[in-house]
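Hypothesis: this fold can be encoded by more than one sequence.
Test: take the structure tokens below, design a sequence, compare later.
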């Protein structure tokens, strides 16, 4: 039986990455953070000194940037032009640049083909902001993961501190609010909930509870496809 395509969308710091990684591991599926692809291009543009505000320069440069995914154990590494960029993709400047270039049609078109190629065969958990609406509108299971802005700001603040990246809570929360506005107002593939997405508010939930909610929905889909009960082992 063909494995499922699972799409997880939602705003910044809603917990998409952690949930998607754990869900993919639990199912034995490939995990892909679509945002990492945009960050990879942003990182390379910064390395090359290209102004992210110059749409023409960015779109031209993006066409020649080679991105490769490499599995190392259970981790997915992002390589750009034969250089591993994974450790640098969460730097604040990369995040800000990614937010800018993600609105450019030329960049989105390039990465759309990559995303669809990776996930077309199923067996993938892909997370981002337009997975269920644009990349895989026919995904087998769609989730929209959300949380209040203060909670998301605190999560991102703690995440950066754990990685040794200086962070100011108020500034980080403000940047998330600005990112939300840009994501929802952009003309190309704006952030929005797919009509058939299952909404999970992670504000009062821990990671395990979020994953359990997702697993229950995936099991329902698998059971429907198999004409019986799905077979997902309980979390340890």
């Amino acid at each position: 039986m063909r494995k499922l395509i699972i799409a997880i969308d939602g705003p910044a710091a809603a917990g998409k990455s952690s949930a998607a990684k754990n869900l993919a591991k639990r199912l034995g599926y490939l995990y892909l953070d679509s945002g990492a692809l945009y960050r990879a291009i942003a990182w390379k543009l910064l390395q090359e000194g290209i102004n992210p505000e110059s749409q023409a320069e960015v779109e031209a440069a993006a066409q020649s940037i080679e991105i490769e995914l490499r599995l190392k154990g259970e981790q997915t590494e992002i390589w750009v032009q034969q250089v591993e960029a994974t450790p640098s993709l969460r730097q604040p400047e990369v995040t800000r640049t990614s937010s800018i270039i993600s609105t450019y049609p030329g960049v989105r078109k390039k990465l759309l083909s990559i995303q669809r190629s990776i996930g077309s065969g199923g067996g993938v958990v892909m997370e981002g902001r337009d997975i269920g609406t644009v990349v895989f509108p026919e995904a087998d299971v769609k989730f929209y993961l959300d949380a209040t802005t203060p909670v998301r700001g605190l999560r991102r603040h703690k995440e950066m501190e754990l990685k040794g990246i200086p962070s100011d809570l108020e500034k980080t929360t403000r940047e998330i609010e600005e990112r939300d506005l840009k994501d929802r107002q952009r003309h190309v593939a704006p952030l929005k909930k797919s009509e058939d997405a299952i909404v999970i508010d992670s504000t009062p939930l821990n990671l395990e509870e979020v994953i359990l909610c997702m697993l229950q929905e995936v099991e329902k889909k698998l059971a429907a496809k198999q004409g019986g009960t799905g077979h997902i082992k309980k979390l340890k």
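The chain has one domain: 5-220. Strands lie at 5-9, 30-33, 67-72, 75-80, 83-84, 124-128, 141-146, 198-201.
Hypothesis status: open.
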